[in-house]
Automatic annotation (TrEMBL):
GO terms for cellular component: outer membrane. Residues 32-105 form the Outer membrane protein assembly factor BamE domain. The keyword Membrane applies. The keyword Signal applies. This is Membrane protein SmpA. It comes from Novosphingobium lindaniclasticum LE124. Keywords: Membrane, Signal. Residues 145-164 are annotated as: Disordered. Residues 146-164 have a biased composition (Gly residues). PROSITE patterns: PROKAR_LIPOPROTEIN. The lineage of its organism: Bacteria, Pseudomonadati, Pseudomonadota, Alphaproteobacteria, Sphingomonadales.
Amino acid sequence: MRSYGHMAKAAGIALALAALTAGCTSVRDHRGYLIDQTLLDSVQPGIDNRLSVEKTLGRPTFVSQFGEKDYYYISQTVKTPPFRRPQTSEQTVLRVRFDPAGNVVGVDKRGMEQVARINPNGDTTPTLGRHRGLLEDLFGNIGQVGASGMGSPGGPTGPGPNGS
């Protein structure tokens, strides 16, 4: 009877450990356009136009704002480790270029090599100009407000806002 209790306790511990480790796995999530290579291969430069590309690939993720109105299709796979921020593990940017008449000129496909990793510089944003302290911020304008043009109404600065 004693060994049965020991086995039940060991099974309970094993079950608890399995439950804990299952909660510590990364979550994978797909965001954006789902790229179908067969559909992508069917878009041909010189044959297709904007309308046929939209019918084949669907509406683009976004359209360029400058120059020719190129179509962009963005696809991302994001991993979220436990207790941490999501990180992009895979990314594909599909660009369909058009000529001024709206016909396909080319199809470009880029991956993670185009992703820029930016690390912020702490909690402050560096700026140009003077570095003022707290007291200068609080009392810096004393004597500055209304100092020029103080005199009689209608003096060198002209009439006030009420016409006097």
